[in-house]
Design brief:
Rossmann fold, 7-stranded mixed beta sheet, 11 helices, 14% strand, alpha/beta, binds S-adenosylmethionine, 264 residues, 7 strands
Length: 264
């Protein structure tokens, strides 16, 4: 039987892994976090826990650390257990791993919510001059490709295609006019300043109070962090960003809770 990563036209996630390692290795917190990640991912490859069993089904199709995937898993448990209304949205799917983890979690929780999966499905667009680490970031332009057919096939194989809607195109073109209604969990994994900025500008107001926003790249890409910090400052958002690992952060949106029952 084939494993999920086999046969992909685009299985190589990044073009210059050694340059990335050299660039990041200067930061001792990144080195320490990477060592911890190796240990934790080793554990999740053998552990009988519910999360680990889901993780094993997607791990070859994701660049997200297991700490960040666990963050998504917990976010879904959080909104479902509190009956918090809203869909689930992924901005930045690449080969579909983190989105599929969310779909598997929803199925495990028997929660019928729509999962929106947004991407170019043609790889990373170029960063812009607004990204402080533009020269390094630009090495990744065109990488992280997962075609729509590949991602759809993954969902089909895992048996979780039913409540999924794919939104293909640049966030700047698709998100401001999307039909996405209220959101319970928003996962932003778009790497660049302009990408993260448009996700927040288009979708933050759709996240219900007490919904969860997970930011994959806050500690990793300077443009992503800048977009988040600017947006929070403009909006006067005081809620603390909580740390998942070196890169990932999440926020529980402040405000009164709307239960699914109230929203009906
Ligand atoms: C790091 S990858 C996502 C990784 C994925 N969540 C996983 O599980 O491996 C970033 C993705 O964001 C997408 N992306 C970034 N900026 C975008 C934009 N402006 N419009 C559409 N997609 C974008 C890229 O195409 C790429 O697939």
């Amino acid at each position: 039987m084939s494993t999920p990563g086999e046969g992909l036209s685009s299985a190589q996630p990044i073009r210059h892994p050694w340059r990335e390692v050299l660039h990041r290795a200067r930061d001792p917190r990144f080195v320490a976090d990477s060592a911890l990640r190796v240990v934790m991912e080793g554990w999740d490859r053998v552990s009988p826990s519910e999360f680990s069993r889901l993780y094993r089904q997607v791990r070859t199709r994701t660049m997200c650390s297991n700490a960040r995937l666990r963050g998504l898993y917990r976010a879904l448990h959080y909104v479902v257990s509190r009956d918090i209304a809203g869909d689930v949205v992924e901005c930045g799917a690449a080969q579909g791993g983190s989105a599929a983890l969310m779909a598997l979690t929803l199925r495990q929780l028997e929660s019928r919510r729509k999962l929106w999966v947004c991407d170019t499905f043609e790889g990373l667009p170029a960063p812009s001059s607004a990204d402080p680490d533009f020269e390094f970031a630009d090495l990744f332009t065109g990488t992280c490709i997962g075609t729509l057919n590949e991602v759809r096939a993954l969902f089909q194989r895992l048996g979780v295609l039913e409540d999924v809607e794919f939104v293909k195109g640049l966030f700047q073109e698709t998100l401001p006019v999307s039909r996405i209604p209220q959101i319970a969990v928003l996962h932003i994994d778009g790497d660049w300043y302009e990408s993260v900025k448009v996700c927040l500008e288009s979708l933050y107001d759709k996240v219900v109070p007490d919904g969860v926003i997970q930011l994959d790249d806050y500690g990793y890409w300077k443009g992503a962090r800048k977009a988040v910090d600017e947006f929070f400052e403009q909006r006067g958002i005081q809620a603390p960003l909580k740390r998942l690992d070196y890169s990932g952060r999440f926020l529980i949106k402040p405000g009164p809770i709307t239960s699914a029952a109230e929203a009906r």
